[in-house]
Amino acid sequence: MRGRGLGWLAVGGLACLALPATTTAQQAATPSVSRGERAFQKCYACHALGEDDEGAEGPSLGGIVGRKVAALPGYAYSGPLRAYADKQPRWTRAELDAFLADPQAAAPGNAMGFFGIKDPAERAALIDYLAAR
Question: CA distances (Å), 122 to each of 23, 72, 104, 109, in order?
Answer without folding.
Answer: 20, 25, 19, 24
